[in-house]
Amino acid sequence: MKPLDTFYLKDDALHQVHHHSGDDRRNFLVDTETGETIRSVEQANSIALERMNHRSGVGSLSRRTLLAGGAGVLSLSTLMMTESLAPRYAYGAEPLGDGTVFVMIYLRGGADGLSLVTPYNDSYYKSQRKTTRKSLSMQGAYKLDNTFMLAPEMAGLKKAWIAGDLSIVHSVGIDENTRSHFSNYERVDRSAPVQYKTGWLARLLDLTPDNRSQFRAFSHASRMAGAFYGSDQDILAVNGFADFRVNSNATDKETITGAARRIANSVGGILGQTASQTLNAMADIQGLVSAGYTPANGANYGSSELGQSMKDIAQIIKAERGVQVVTVDHGDWDTHREQKSRLGTLAKELGDALGAFYQDMGAVRMQKIVVMTVSEFGRTTVENASLGTDHGAGNFSFILSGKATGKIAGGSWAGLKNAQDKDNAIQTDYRSLAAEVMKKGLGVDDTRIRQVFPEFTPKPVGVLA
To answer: Of the residues 64, 200, 307, 397, which has the maximum number of CB atoms within 10 A of its CB?
Structure first.
């Protein structure tokens, strides 16, 4: 479901509402000051900018040319996220943990992990999957051990597995699995009892030394990941480096840029500060774009959105801009219908993008990088009447790093035939996996981990050495 790209005021005067109906036309916004339903981006922008003018004392600004568009341009969705005016280029301070970069990839929609890492010998799987079944006889399938194989579409990760730089966890999930996309991601992102209102990555950033880089943490997506919500840090949402610039239908972009800079220089307050922050980030990113980027070691990221996202992340890591935590979205995994063709494309994008990133970074850099995938739930072992699968429970997570154990973790495989015989039963709590990433991957101490995951005791998983 596509979200509306619009402005937001910091006090939530405009509040976005989604209907999980599959019909994007039912997305809408509610003006919490008047109760009015907002049905278009233009209407929301007009209201937001009018209030911005009123509250900041700014004269009339063009609603259609200044601050136009969604994430990655000068919209309030990016401008209202930070409160630091000074450019942030001082990277010499203490790093987060041991200086390792953490990249978390959201497989949004509930990825069918059984079609990525397949328990090819499981009799229940073989009997219940008709059109979506994977087998070792398929060209490109790769045997991991006597239980699991990499699906042919995931062949891009074969080199990492052989080198011991890929760990895989089976049967990962969260407690109180609701089978709801939104509820489950809210739980994943918060990873704490309901009285805690911040995301777990926000708590991690707030509890560890800030290196003062404007790129310390960002979402490579059209919106900021929920795990960053509530952070005292400056968080960017960058929907593609090439598009992270002032954007408008108007022909005179220099005039628009000038107007945006006048806001930064003369308005003051939060809006002026965040305009300055965003403009600085845009200038830095556009400098990288202009310089161009050639991946190392013959790596080919392809043309998929995920591939291009991972290419952007590789470039900014190599440019040493102080990156510590990045989240990436890879969507459309909700395969209720005709899963075979749809999931095949998504799986190949994932395998190829991660494989290219691994090849591009090389063995030395991968020692200081941890990539983790997460999805809100797995899918049922049983196909439905629409040749797809429905919302399930346990899933698979990939850990790509030079620190990986190179093993399949999660305990003994219990098999798919169980008391909840349409599910891969959850054996590993997502927070235990994330805690091990923090401790062994990023070098975060136990005291801070307990604050990141309050009222939870992690168990060893075995994905990182």
So the answer is: 397
